Amino acid sequence: MGKLRKELGGCDEEGPSLSRLLEERGVSRRDFLKFCTTMSAALALPVTFAPKIAQALDEVKRPTLVWLEYQDCAADTEALLRAEHPTVAELILDILSVDYHETVMAAAGFQAEEALAKVVKEQKGKYLAVVEGSIPLKDDGIYCCVAGRTAVDTAREVCGNALATIAVGTCASFGGLPAASPNPTGAVGVREAVPGATVLNLPGCPLNADNLTAAVVYFLTFGKLPATDDQGRPLFAYGKRIHDNCERRPHFDAGQYVERWGDDGHKVGYCLYKMGCKGPETFHNCPTQRFNQKTSWPVAAGHGCAGCSQPGFWDTMTPLYQRLPNVPGFGIEHTADSIGIGVAAGTAAAFAVHGVVSAFRGKSDADTSKEEK
Amino acid sequence: MTRIVVDPITRIEGHLRIEAEVNGGRVSDAWSSSTMFRGIETILKGRDPRDAWYFTQRFCGVCTTVHSIASIRCVENALDIKVPPNAQLIRNIIMGIQNVQDHVIHFYHLHALDWVDITSALKADPTKTAALAASISDWPLNSPTYFKGVQDKLKAFVAKGRLGPFANAYWGHPAYKLPPEANLMATAHYLEALEWQKDVIKVHAILGSKNPHPQTFLVGGMAIPIDLDSQNALNADKLAQIKQLLAKAQVFVEKVYIPDLIAVASFYKEWGGIGGGVGNYLSYGEFPDPVSGKPWFPAGVIVNKDLTKVMPVEQDKVTEYVDHSWYQYSKPATGKGLHPWEGESQKLYTGPTPPYKNLNVDRQYSWVKAPRYLDQPMEVGPLARLLVAYASGHKEVQGAVNGVLKQLNVGPEVLFSTLGRTAARGIDCLLIAQQTPKWLDQLIDNIGKGDTKVHNGAKWDPASWPQYAKGYGWHEAPRGALGHWIKIENGKILNYQAVVPSTWNASPRDAKGLRGPYEAALVGTPLADPNKPLEILRTIHSFDPCLACAVHVMDATGNEMVKINVR
After folding, report:
1. Which residues bind [4Fe-4S] cluster 2 (chain A) (predicted)?
2. Is B211–A82 a contact, with Cβ atoms under 8 angstroms apart?
3. Is B519 a residue of the active site?
4. A105, B347: Cβ pair inside 8 Å?
């Protein structure tokens, strides 16, 4: 862990500590500690971890990060712009040295590509890579080229030489929308496109920027990637089912459902299960972390969960407004028994449920329409 | 003659490549190429039309919301569904704040560095900067101490020798004209805007759960229920929050964005004569009145810069060509455009094998198709929107446009330019920032009268639909005229085509060899240093490119459609 931290800082041997850098940028020690406390909360750590995080960030010199965009829609970049603790300005100016990010960077053309090449050459094995968007493999990867090179070509070089890669959003994690049936371009996520790379998946459509900052801080603090489930997703953000943290769960258990958009149940916040909510099969911290400075999340705003952090959700979780079949349990006791909400059991359950859904999709359309009525 | 390549064009959404020929210090010809393809329209086939908005929303995460709006509108048009006034007003508020936030981000974070040299800000005198700021606006953050603080932070950042996202840029380029004080002021506002944008867009989170990609759109209305007495609905508290956020948006546009825009533009007036482009402008009209449906910004077409005539827009006049795009029409042969309802195509990459140095621009060179209106290329965007409104006699638009022209001491002819495009975006932003609170007031008024309806569910059940239906949905997105066309059969999507703003603007040549708007606008652009083509970035960024949007087309033949239906 210490060694990793040293490697991260190694590119800037004489550089001052992060907290000093922040002070110079007008971020007070108090603000810095507040940020560390927020991070502790985002990481689902006890608040007592805050001093440890502060200490760790102090020791780290600004590590270099390069952000690659492939078959993307830039929503994960936009999500980054909405980051609150720390803000995007603090992230890209103070905490990290973001040496390549097409949507943000001032340089263009060959000067932009030079900046990327410099990082790969001079900081081999020491920098962080972030990938947004899927990577097409079909027809030798010609469906996504930047500066005349294919996405898969640059991804293998850049992610293959990175200390670690963070896949932001469902496309970079699992292929996402471009990989939805019939996957016209052979799109895949980073783990599949760059075998052997160290990849942390932060799916979501888009990802929640708070989970990205938490993952970066986790990495800088503990010198390792957070513990993950079998899908490569950190347990601190994806270890629990939405259904189990949902503020409307009591209405599910009580059998109180929205039946029509705008009906009385909808107005008072009944469960959206019958309107197609995929919360019972989706692992993500939306109900607790929420979005846009914790303002809201889909269920709180009256629309069901779409299941966007699950692999293949574009095929397995659609139609959007079709209710999930056979969600176990009406009543807390039964639910707790049959689903099991422990972190360890979570992954296995995700697979099991995924299988159930896939099997159901095989049914005829006639069954589907019946289900909707 | 030199051939130059700018790839990637950064500070845009998506992947754009420009190849240009330079002759005697000017661009003599240019080719616009998009180098990324996903095939989302193929993916849509066979799916539930009520889901389409959720898929098409992912065309783009920068213009998030716009493809949701166009999508629900095309399904509603196909099925003849009228949405309740409250839902229309909520949509207007969502579209309004999207426009405002998007334009501000574009100006400060995507476009400003083409005009603002951050390194020059290091040499600024903070006291003079404060005086400059106070002379153009009464925005309170304008003291010498404040600007010194920003400059000190900048100095500390630069002193570390690691410039991160600001490394390797064209700093010190002779085309940068602003004095150090103006550069420092703009840099300070670059940082302020970064904070501002994440606050004001919370309107989307309150009404639609999150941003980017709000999750609230429904065919027939919206998913946010209204109940003043419920904590789980749009209630008095949330309406008050929205009111405050819209006010915050408006004041920043009035007191920071517009004064900055005018201050910066006054140093670059020669750009009022550069970057004109095709001279044809298309706007679909936007912000329908919740009862009459009449759009606040009118629809229309202007041809050849003639502001004395505005033609009505007819959807059947839109066609797309693929003669210079990496697709092949199976029938009829190339050389003919197809209307989006018949928009069937097959991807056929004929470009060079990567890694490559140059594209075969004489043949096919882009994943963007070439849309045409009555066989003519059209520029779309805030400039087109304002020109159509201006020429149609829209009083507020005429007042705002004339006001800005007067402040810059220039005539309306400068509108047809790179500077005109950038100025029009600011005026568009100002007008919408001032109008959006009025839609909120109307919504509050409606709710006060007891109307809480947000969804028309009469045709929610696909069993109520005809066996076959087709429709189109238009939207004036921040970047301009956006259209979705859908065919529905047996409750499923039979065909889906989107012709989006950046498809119009980033269009390659068509069958007749007519250049697209980017390409035409670049011809004649002066270049001080072909190795640092800052001037190309200025004109391209003035369009606010959004390339993921522009390329979304299908690749399947008609037969494959059946196979891909997974459900």
Report:
1. 243, 246, 271, 277
2. yes
3. no
4. no
- What averages of pLDDT result for each successive group of 10 residues across chain B (567 residues)? 94 94 96 93 94 96 94 98 98 98 97 96 98 97 97 90 91 97 97 96 98 98 97 97 98 98 96 97 98 96 97 97 89 77 84 96 95 97 98 97 94 95 98 98 98 98 98 98 97 95 96 97 96 97 90 40 28
Cis before B8? omega within 30 = yes
Please give the average per-residue pLDDT across A253-282, as a whole number.
Answer: 97
Q: Are residues A62 and A158 in the same domain?
A: yes
Q: Taking residues A331-356, what's their average pLDDT?
A: 37
Tell whether A41 and A125 lie within a shared domain. yes
B74 is catalytic: no
**Are the C-beta atoms of B333 and B344 separated by less than 8 Å?**
no
Residue A4: predicted pLDDT: 46
Contacts 24+ apart (CB under 8 A), A48-53: A52/A221, A53/A217, A53/A221
Domain of A279, CATH number, reads 4.10.480.10
- Active-site choice (B32, B50, B60, B535): B60
- Specify whether A204 is located in the same domain as A250: no
How many structural domains is chain A composed of? Answer: 2
Half-sphere exposure of B30 (CA within 13 A, CB side): 27
Decide if pLDDT at A369 tops 90. Answer: no
Residue A323 above 50 pLDDT? yes
A18 and A57 inside one domain: yes
Q: Compute the C-alpha angle B56/B61/B67, nearest 5°.
A: 30
Count the domains in chain B.
1
| Contact residues on chain A for B348, CB-CB shorter than 8 A | none
- Do A142 and B349 make contact, defined as CB atoms within 8 angstroms? yes
A267 lies within 8 A of chain B by CB: yes
A70 at interface of B, judged by CB pairs closer than 8 A = yes
Using 50, 70 and 90 to split pLDDT, how confident is the model at A372? very low
Q: A269–B156: do the CB atoms touch at under 8 Å?
A: no
| Domain residue limits at B435 | 2-324+335-563
Helical packing angle, B144-159 and B180-200, nearest 10°:
90
What pLDDT, on the 0 to 100 scale, is given for residue A59? Answer: 58
* DSSP-derived secondary structure for B202-259: HHHHHHHS-SSS-S-EETTEES--B-TT-TTSB-HHHHHHHHHHHHHHHHHIIIIIHH
Grouping H, G, I as helix, E, B as strand and the rest as coil, residue B486 is strand
